[in-house]
Design brief:
The structure is a single chain. With 695 residues, this protein is an alpha+beta fold. It has 5 domains: 113 residues, Nucleic acid-binding proteins (OB fold (Dihydrolipoamide Acetyltransferase, E2P), Beta Barrel), CATH 2.40.50.140; 66 residues, OB fold (Dihydrolipoamide Acetyltransferase, E2P) (Beta Barrel), CATH 2.40.50; 318 residues, no CATH class; 54 residues, no CATH class; 80 residues, OB fold (Dihydrolipoamide Acetyltransferase, E2P) (Beta Barrel). It is 31% helix and 28% strand. It contains 16 helices and 33 strands. The strands form 10 sheets. Strands 6-5-4-7-8 form a 5-stranded antiparallel sheet. It has a 5-stranded mixed sheet with strand order 10-9-12-13-11, covered by helices on one side. Helix 12 runs antiparallel to helix 14. The longest helix has 41 residues. The radius of gyration is 27 Å and the shape is globular. The relative contact order is 0.08.
Length: 695
């Protein structure tokens, strides 16, 4: 039927309307709409006004995304394309659009093909004396019936299901529920989470299923499991972590080998494929952490209870056992189902105290030999990863501490530390081992992939570095990471390294999930996956389920069954990649909104900022947020150098380039629309310390 509809549109050449098709084909309205949408999303037809035509050859399809600074762009396949000024106010996150490229390689949007974002959060506001609902995507118009509006109050936060009209000019809204009030604690986090398709809503059926999970390990569950309860197993996490996926232990063998045990919570023992818990996990795909709020992939009964490797209780695990030689090679390994009893809950700060200050915190004395062995293992692995070309970027993650009312107390940048590095490398070792295991068996799984970057984008960044006064050679190829690794190592001791590192990350491909093994470029590994966090990531849980199949039912595997698994995993991997992008954007938005709330109390004050980019607009980072400044917002001390195409301070002679420290005046800060207005006043005097909210 779909092919016949396509042929009709092709033959009628621009004269086909929905009414024409309903007369010609004996199918229901909803079924026809569904088929037309499928043809649109397949890139076969396009709707212009009320007419359907064959998709023009010069048009392409793309999906709208929004950067952390609020700038809209689109993805055409894996390619990121910036949008020309038209249509910017009409499109919203996830819209599928048709577009063509202009002379500047910008997307000129022709039409909105689909608006899949069906549920939106809105605030009830009074505008021109009338009650109206204003959506989070406030550039679109939503219409809600007066009967519903009459029962709502100004300040209510509600969720609605939207149905756009044919031309996407406005959206009819169906009321779903009231979420809360704008003055509720953590309401910002709740609204942001729901806007990105996350929540902590559980159906009655789901809650009933969760209530039947055990709270302890039973003896009959230990059959066929390796028993490691004799080991002095420890967990090492953040000080406030409550859902502990991983625990570690290591021992030295006589031949110089370190035998490493990475114990991971056996979540798939409890969460089965036919359960509501698994279905919801497939929908959310990841836990979301917004400031001091958590939106769980798995119910807290599981994530903090029977699945969490809490101290001094038996827990079921899957264990990756790795023999690591002095060169960091994993010379032997095994993967087994197991049971452990963690002896101590350690935290990064205490472990850092041992390795940085040679100070052993109380309660750690008996574990010092174990920590030294674990650290030796991580150094061996790290040396091999570095030799293989692993790229080490500067940390760009904020560590925020909160007051009792949820406001920011302090912000610091999370730096690499011995404790974090120890766990990171041990987990990479386990993930690498599992990836190679599956790949060599030829059994489908979900890989964590990071493909080669675009050479042109890397060289554009290098040109900017050279314009900023650095001396970096353009690259001939990026087939392996060595050239980028060498470039970063040369720049690592520069004050601007953090900015350079961030820009390099932005110039690279985004990591994602796939059933195809493309390797992991930044880690320099031929195969990689995520296995070590099944409590909070669907991809890891899927890998655990595949482990169960291999360990328990290997003899039952056949080509037909493996093909079915591959197709199912492929769809889930795509969805997990999309939801990971959603989670990343939500986390940054929530953090930046909270920081801007703090800045609202400092309007009119002067701060020190760092210039990140100097293209059409100047992008600066200060107090934990990135923001753009129009070049008209430069102080009178700045002049333009036409040859270098850069602005400079006429008193100091210093140019505004990547990494330049500048003084800014905070003119305005508005957390509601996530905006700050700045004025660059000059270059700081090195002897005068200006206010910095982030340390």
């Amino acid at each position: 039927m779909k092919d016949k509809i396509y042929e009709t549109i092709k033959v009628m050449s621009g004269k086909t309307t929905f009414k024409t098709l309903t007369k010609k084909f004996d199918i229901g309205t909803e079924e026809l709409q569904k088929m037309l949408l499928e043809l649109k999303l397949d890139g076969k037809i396009i709707q212009l006004g009320n007419k359907y035509i064959i998709f023009p050859k010069d048009l392409m399809l793309g999906t709208i995304a929004v950067s952390t600074s609020g700038k809209k762009y689109l993805y055409h396949g894996k390619e990121k394309v910036y949008i020309a000024s038209n249509f910017l106010n009409e499109v919203i996150l996830h819209d599928v659009v048709s577009f063509r490229l202009n002379d500047n390689n910008e997307a000129v949007i022709v039409s909105i093909v689909d608006r899949p974002l069906g549920v939106m959060t809105c605030e009830v506001m009074e505008i021109d004396g009338k009650k109206k609902i204003v959506p989070y995507h406030n550039e679109i118009q939503i219409v809600l019936s007066n009967d519903i509006l009459d029962n709502l109050y100004v300040g209510d936060i509600i969720s609605v299901k939207i149905t756009p009209n044919e031309l996407f000019e406005y959206n009819d809204a169906e009321f779903i529920k009231k979420i809360g009030r704008i003055d509720d604690p953590n309401h910002d986090e709740l609204v942001i989470a729901m806007n990105y398709e996350f929540d902590n809503d559980y159906s009655a059926e789901y809650e009933e299923e969760v209530s039947k999970y055990p709270t302890e390990v039973y003896p009959e569950e230990l059959n066929g499991r390796s028993d490691y309860r004799y080991q002095d197993v420890v967990t090492i996490d953040g000080i406030n972590t409550k859902d502990m996926d991983d625990a570690v232990y290591a021992e030295r063998l006589e031949n110089g080998i370190i035998r490493l045990y990475v114990h991971i919570a056996d979540v798939s023992h409890y969460v089965k494929k036919d359960s509501l818990v698994f279905q919801r996990a497939c929908e959310k795909t990841t836990s979301l952490y917004l400031n001091n709020s958590v939106f769980h992939m798995l119910h807290p009964v599981l994530s903090k209870g029977i699945c969490s490797l809490n101290p001094n209780v038996d827990r079921l695990t899957k264990t990756v056992i790795m023999d690591i030689d002095e060169d960091g090679n994993i010379v032997d390994f095994d993967i087994v189902k197991s049971v452990i009893n963690s002896k101590k809950k350690m935290n990064y700060d205490d472990v850092d105290e041992i390795f940085l200050n040679n100070n052993v915190p109380a309660g750690y004395e008996n574990y010092l030999p174990l920590l030294l062995t674990l650290n030796d293992a991580t150094e061996r692995l790290e040396n091999r990863y570095t030799q293989n070309g692993k790229i080490t970027f500067a940390s760009n993650e904020n560590n925020i501490t909160y007051n009792s009312d949820g406001s920011i107390d302090n912000i610091t940048v999370i730096n690499d530390s011995p404790g974090r590095k120890l766990i990171e490398n041990l987990m990479i070792g386990a993930n690498e081992t599992l990836a190679n295991w599956f790949y060599n068996m030829g059994i489908p799984t979900v890989y964590r992939v990071h493909e080669l970057p675009d050479l042109n984008k890397i060289n554009i960044l290098i040109d900017k570095l050279n314009q900023s006064g650095f001396k970096v050679k353009r690259l001939n190829n990026v087939d392996n990471t060595k050239s980028i690794q060498i470039m970063l190592d040369k720049l690592r001791n520069h004050e601007e390294f953090g900015v350079i590192s961030q820009l390099l990350v932005m110039s690279m491909q985004r990591a994602g999930y796939s059933t195809e093994n493309y390797g992991h470029y930044a880690l320099g590994l031929d195969a990689y996956l995520h296995f070590t966090s099944p409590i909070r990531r669907l991809a890891d849980l899927l890998v655990h389920m595949m482990c169960d199949i291999v360990i328990d039912d290997y003899d039952k595997l056949n080509d037909k069954y493996l093909d079915e698994i591959y197709k199912e995993l492929s769809e889930l991997a795509k969805h997990a990649s999309r939801m990971q992008r959603q989670a990343d954007m939500a986390e940054i938005e929530a953090e930046q909104r909270l920081i801007i709330k703090k800045l609202e109390k400092h309007i009119g004050e002067e701060f020190e900022a760092t210039v990140c980019e100097t293209d059409e607009k100047i992008r600066v980072k200060f107090s934990g947020i990135d923001t753009y400044i129009d070049k008209r917002s430069l102080g009178e001390d700045f002049q333009y150098d036409g040859k270098k195409k850069l602005y400079y301070d006429k008193y100091s002679g210093k140019y505004l380039t990547m990494g330049t420290k500048v003084l800014i005046n905070l003119i305005d800060a508005n957390s509601a629309n996530k905006s700050v207005k700045l004025y660059i006043s000059g270059i700081p005097n090195q002897n005068i310390k200006k206010k910095v909210l982030i340390s």
